[in-house]
Structures
1.
Amino acid sequence: MTGRLFREFSIVIAGSVAISAFVALTLTPMLATKMLKSRHQRSKAYNYSEKFFIWLNESYRSSLETLLKRKYISLIIIMISVVLIGILWKAIPAEMAPMEDRSQLTIRTTMPEGSTYEFNLAYNQDITKLVEQKVPEGDKVTSMVRGSMTFVRVVLVGPDDRDRSQQEIANRLTADLRKMTKARAMVIQQSTFGGRRAGQPIQYVLQAPNIEKLREIIPAFMAEVQDNPIFSMPDIDLKFTKPELQIVINRDKANLLGVSTQNIGQTLQLALSGQRFGYFIMNGKQYQILGELARQDRNKPLDLKSLYVRNNTGQMVQLDNFVELEEATAPPQLYRYNRFVAATVSAGLAEGKLSVRDLKKWIKLRQKCLMILSEQRLRATPKTLWKVHRV
């Protein structure tokens, strides 16, 4: 944070030093020859102020001589300074950087997995109407649908032209959006420091050696986050919301019927993958040859069991005799942090919660829902607090 706060100031200082060096080496010697003159008589102001500077020099000389004779005094001063630094470090509370009123808000909505474009558009329009009703201070409202994510960007009038602050408007919208339960919407304010991207102020990264271990930890962890009063609108990027159908082969039955797993895999690939077998030319145009069942023959999960596979004797055997279907869910996308499978929990701060001390209290929840951790690392950015756990 210190680097970002004083980035502009450091540029000013560097520029001032460069200009000062140029003036000292070029203009100052020339001006000194023109303006400075040898004077044998001093003015009354000089004689009056010179007494003070003589006294100051003598005081400094005497104190320096005393300190050199009693060198242990300097060690006592250093020890007292170190102790005071430690006491003040713990006593002075640290806080997150407060939000700057930039007259901009972004509402990001995560739609359910598999939702249609029409559903996303209609729900985004409902949020836009809510913003227009609840935020009379809005100057411009822009909505956008991008896949399973929708965005509503609100540009407010200037701070001098409205009675409510940006934070108050964001808190009111957050309370109203909680009542809309068809999708998960959150109000995001642009970071005080950093780039233009807006995100949640708190991010907590969970790491695990495999996805199964992470799937076991996430529910207990998210339950603790949602019950904690410090945070608002918690969310996680790793969601197990993508439905999938797993085909479990009974190898014993398949061996008795003379069917190999290779034949089963090839049958499923030919029936469902849409593999390209070649090309053909008709009326001067080239077309692809794709192997795939008709849509009406592969719409239902039970259609998989209706497929037939040839055994080692040349007979056709139905898949229903030796396969079982299991419904499961998987994440649409896997995330990694330092080459480990990871999930990032993001959340906003509740109203009036800016102290890092409150966050450190919340971090103790890992003792309830996580096993002994082999590595933990804390990385603080101007607005974001990261806590990394490897399970």
Note: The two ends are 29 Å apart (CA to CA).
2.
Amino acid sequence: MRWRNWNIRAWTFQSNFCCAGGGIFAGQSGNSLELTDPLPYSRHCHLQAVKHAAPAGSSFDRRSAINRLNQSLLEQMQVSELEISNRMELLGMTPADLRQLASLKDKIAAVLGGIVDEFYQKQTAIEDVVLLIGDAETMTRLRRAQYDYVLELFCGIYDADYVNNRLRIGLVHKRIGVEPKLYLSAIKTLKDILTRVIRTIVEDPAEANEIADTLDKLIYFDTTLVFDTYIQSMVGEIAAAKIRTEKYAEELARQVEDRTRELETMARTDPLTGLYNRRSMTEVFERELAHARRKRGTLCCAYFDVDKFKSINDEKGHVFGDQVLIAVGKAIEHSIREVDIGCRYGGDEFCIVLPDCSLKDACSICERIIAHFNQKFPQQALSIGIVQKGIDDVPTAQELIEAADKKMYQAKEVEGSHIAA
């Protein structure tokens, strides 16, 4: 059975917004919803939904969202005329049934004031509903909208526009937070009132039962459409929440990774100079020694300190002393090769591991360190000792450090900066 030729006049948004059941909650105080200008609010709802549902890491495609706003809910949910026809057939509704229902429109209109009065009398006995309505102005708007809605039930015209409006009812009421239990309670109240009125104004009990049964089916039809959008909206919220959760998890993982790197760096480096600390340098030194043994290569170790550093701290203070140590660290970083390892060994003592390096090249590197350091502190001196691991030598890292330390003390026998190798 086809329903293509059944037409319905367009409802105003207010009528949709203030429909039976959910309609009692529209225009509530405190929600700033203006029924006389609903389109911007409706578009805002859709725009926010599309924006929040954008995939993690993707940019919000405003053009795509605007295109969505130009589609009806019917088009968005892909509810075809065939689907509408199938739903009506499943509920057993026929054109004849709906024409019979429409025949009561004038009689219903005659007693509509009493129907609406009774409906809101019962609804306002529910505390949650009173809180949702909020004020007298909203109640007045709701009553006017309810008049229109009840008459629409008896108009006998039910096409794609009608379905689209029912879908919008569900969307709007989900947006403003109307719970399904309140919607279902209100729609049952309205159905009970209308059924009683039908049995009163229709003299033939059999005909009255038929019309009441058609009304019951139509309200079921409307409710399924309303809850289609309720469900779609909830699915969209779940999807958006999933995306937000995944994005949060990714961000949290990135923060953990960054923090782990920071902690690893802090564990390896000296906080004052940024060079390797003693513990990490010992590990690197042993690794470089093992590599040199395998390759039968050379390796140099330079060990040095700042002459009379204790006097510097005592006379000029620890802040000045820290500046001297920072300058040594910068001089090392500026002067060594990429493969070399600079370390603050402790206090004012520094050590440099120079893989695949001759004594001559090691001395040149240390001369550059002294020159760079003296650019900032020309009055301070560095005493540097250098030792080399030969091709056939198998010393430990500690043995090389101790040997370089002895060379450093030989350098201290000469006034000013000096290198002993």
Note: Residues 1-22, 24-60 have pLDDT under 50 and may be disordered.
